[in-house]
Amino acid sequence: MKAPFLGCIADDFTGATDLANNLVRAGMRVVQSIGVPDAPLDTDADAIVVALKSRTIPAAEAVAQSLAALKWLRAQGTQQTYFKYCSTFDSTAEGNIGPVTDALMDALQIDFTIACPAFPENGRTVFKGYLFVGDELLHESGMRNHPLTPMTDSNLVRVLQAQTTRRVGLIDHRTVAGGTAAIETRIAALRSQGVSMAIVDATDNEDLMQMGRAFATLPLVTAGSGVAIGLPQNFGLDAVAGAAQLPAARGGRAIVSGSCSTATNAQVANFIGHGGAAFAIDPLRLAEGADVASEALAWAEEQLADGPVLVYATAQPDAVRAVQAQLGVAHAGEIVEHAMGAIARGLAERGVGQLIVAGGETSGACVQSLGITTLRIGPQIAPGVPWCHAASPHAKDGGLHIALKSGNFGAVDFFTQAFATLGRDA
Ligand code: ADP
Known about the structure:
Blueprint: E1 6-10, H1 13-25, E2 30-34, E3 47-51, H2 59-75, E4 80-84, H3 97-108, E5 113-116, E6 124-127, E7 130-133, E8 136-137, H4 156-161, E9 167-171, H5 173-177, H6 180-192, E10 195-200, H7 205-214, E11 220-223, E12 252-257, H8 262-273, E13 277-280, H9 283-287, H10 292-303, E14 309-312, H11 317-327, H12 329-349, E15 352-358, H13 360-369, E16 374-382, E17 385-391, E18 399-405, H14 414-425
The protein binds adenosine-5'-diphosphate (ADP).
Adenosine-5'-diphosphate binds next to helix 11, helix 12 and helix 13.
């Protein structure tokens, strides 16, 4: 077994999958771990992504968790470290992007790294240090109202400088457009001026490829998931064609949806509209103590032989608000997540081998309930959403294919498309 080339630390769960997806697309075989593993992984992966939940926790805890991840990754022999954060650079003035980067630089004993949240395919571009979300500057986008990390300044040099005592500089688009050699020259110049972190402009994939080559010798890269597109070319990979290969798909097909986002509502309606078998979970009955999970599983067992089944709590905003008004936001979320986790586990026990979970928090609950600790990343279904394969003690034959879709990802026919992708590629 060879050592993986790239060790990645992601500050949230679906962000980790998004990063892994881009690495696979660029030819790497990737394994994602939920949290820091307590032992070496038995894998032949080119990259390992450790998924933390450190984006909005206190900075000291985020630093401790990230350093633990770094230590574990280095023990696996990784050559380069990638700290992955959100493509909207979600962070308050207290962090956590700056403090975690500082801690990783100290641990690696290095004096320079880059910071680049650009992901042009998803509309995140950086120009002259300013981050755009689609056609809007970050501070004019919906991110200005984010409940936990409101972003009110689009100038990333300023945003990052407020979070670190190291000097922050810029590698601007003129330099990036000049190609790899120009970027390397600029890095040398910045270092000689005592700059330790540089925001890097990028507006398209060619920029990412150019900078990827220039970052080949940096021990640490900090970025959104976009920069991952340009790094695999540095490692002389030979397994490019088979990177997304998963074991053959088996077993029943099911969807568990606890997301109430606009895209998921449309996907659920589309599935039902095309005659798909569906069972609705009523949060109020859950709150009364009814064993809705068992009812859903008994129903699903009857249907599974005939095609995919959908179990959903997905509802329109006014229905969600009515439930929340009665139960409280947190309690409503918890009981639905708990039920969805139990249903996912029960479906696996009843022979489901191909499972789609819709919803970020819902995914966390289902993965935990299924006892999944690592995911092998396979073919992309939609940007940011790959099929994965995971061992689970609850799956009938020990493992299952699973796709974790965060709220607003995927086209209206995502569920059908997802099963078709698996049929083709796995
Ligand atoms: P998304 O990725 O779309 O944000 P999440 O799973 O992260 O989806 O979050 C959805 C939250 O809404 C979860 O906590 C889930 O339990 C909760 N939820 C789902 N359906 C309902 C409903 N009908 N009423 C109230 N809350 C719900």
